[in-house]
Specification:
single chain, alpha/beta, 7 helices, 4 strands, globular, binds 4-nitrophenyl phosphate
Length: 172
């Protein structure tokens, strides 16, 4: 795994409770799917009580909306019921969350620029750093203008990375 040697990740392994924020552009496709998948995986592993999951977007134009219908349908077919309501990233997220997962390079650099201190900046990590079955993946592609295969690809990458994220933080 690409983030195995990340000191921020290593320090979180010993922490009793962890708050994790997933971030994409609109917070209606990728990040709410990541939130739902991570929660479901943590429940399946019996470690859900240790984690809080949330998601947010760098573009606030969809604030208040449920995830995109196409994302909800594709996720539901894999057993995930996505009920998050879109919200924009806020500066307090950098205090409230231990780890902020960015879906792509644009999300990553905008979040890092948003951070006010080196400690806040270090909380921002790429989601695909955790991929195990997709070792060459370097971003979760925006599916908004794609067809069904784009949404399936997002789910494949997120199931892989969210599972590895929870396992890594659980020392598994
Ligand atoms: P997301 O997808 O960042 O995965 O939620 C998008 C949703 C909406 C837009 C772009 C990407 N948009 O431009 O409205």
């Amino acid at each position: 795994m690409k983030s195995m040697s990340n000191p921020v990740i290593d320090s979180l392994k010993e922490k009793e409770h962890l708050s994790i924020l997933f971030v994409c552009l609109g917070n209606i496709c990728r990040s709410p799917a990541a939130e739902g998948i991570a929660r479901s995986y943590a429940e399946g592993k019996g470690v859900a009580k240790r984690f809080d999951f949330d998601s947010a977007g760098l573009y606030g134009g969809h604030a208040g909306e449920l995830p995109d219908r196409r994302m909800r349908v594709h996720a539901y077919q894999r057993g995930y019921n996505l009920t998050h309501h879109s919200r924009p990233v806020r500066s307090s997220d950098f205090e409230d969350f231990d780890l902020i997962l960015a879906m792509d390079d644009s999300n990553y650099s905008r979040l890092r620029a948003f951070a006010r201190t080196p400690e806040e900046e270090a909380k921002v990590v790429r989601m695909t750093d955790f991929c195990r079955s997709h070792p060459n993946a370097d971003h979760v592609p925006d599916p908004y203008y794609d067809g069904a295969e784009g949404f399936e690809k997002v789910l494949d990458l997120l199931e892989d990375s969210c599972g590895a994220l929870i396992d890594t933080l659980s020392n598994n």
